[in-house]
Amino acid sequence: MAYCITVCMQKGGVGKTTLTINLAACMAKQGKKVLVVDTDQQGDLTSTATEYSVSTGHFAKKGVYDMIHAHDIAVAANYVSHTQYENIDIIPANANTPLVPGLIEMSATASNGTINKYEMLALCLCEIADNYDVILIDTPPNQGLLVQNALYASDAVLIPIHSTYYSLQGLGEMLRLFFELEKTADTEINVLGVVLSMVKSRVAMNDWLQDNLDEKMRDNELYKHFGIDETKFFKSTISNNQAIVEGEIMGPAIFNVSDKRKSMGGKKKRETGVYKAASEYMSLCDEILAKIGEED
Ligand SMILES: Nc1ncnc2c1ncn2[C@@H]1O[C@H](COP(=O)(O)OP(=O)(O)O)[C@@H](O)[C@H]1O
Ligand SMILES: [Mg+2]
Predict the structure, then answer these.
(1) Which of ligand 1's atoms lies nearest the C-alpha of 18?
(2) Taking CB atoms and a 6 Å cutoff, what residues make up the pocket around ligand 1?
(3) Is residue 18 part of a domain?
């Protein structure tokens, strides 16, 4: 049975999608069978990992919407596509993704209470979980019903944030959603950990974390409830990396390393950016696998 992780933060641009595909690649590189699920209608994960692209209108025929729509008459495996990467499959986003929350509401209402509107994605993923070691769900920048379904379906949540004061506010808002969902959906949300993404200076980051976290832990019941203290922050952090900003890294960093080395010749500076990204994501992946007890 796969271990299912939702990558979640209601702010956009914090690195959710980049984190999801890079972690999937690092896990695949270590021999894990990985399924990624794109629940964001922008379809960034889908366009990174497949030939499909929401922005050009080249849509996957089968995606998350289609799987949920057919959940009681077909096996979810029919809705899985291969990515261009070995050991990584995807349930893609397509033109229907924005309609998923409405579909879920409708199906739950039509079922006369036999279907809980938070568990529809979980029911679908249940059918295919045995085919994978890990399922990673990328989410849109909101707190909508599809995100709540992803949280309900997951064993744990991974939260990427920037190292700024406002990110801790965003984290607080996220925790409030988890808390509300625990009550309304009668579930338990397990925060696997918080990842600092796009870190500019490691030293400054450590000071920042110490100053801000102590204060939050003292005063904030939600932080206490979800056990958010310094041990919940992964030691591995992801640097603000020009190679990612400038699009030098095509797809997951780890799959760029050997090709780049051959083709970059003397361009040492750029090569460093690619290697740095690859090794940071791999180090984070190792920490995560250790935490979920998936390590060989
Ligand atoms: N470590 C990083 N350093 C610099 N830029 C990054 C990094 N990770 C992601 N980005 C860039 O930041 C933007 C937002 O990242 P993305 O993963 O799409 O965030 P989200 O999914 O949370 O909206 C993208 O343009 C991406 O290429
Ligand atoms: Mg995204």
Answers:
(1) 17
(2) 12-18, 44, 141, 197-198, 238, 240-241, 244-245
(3) yes
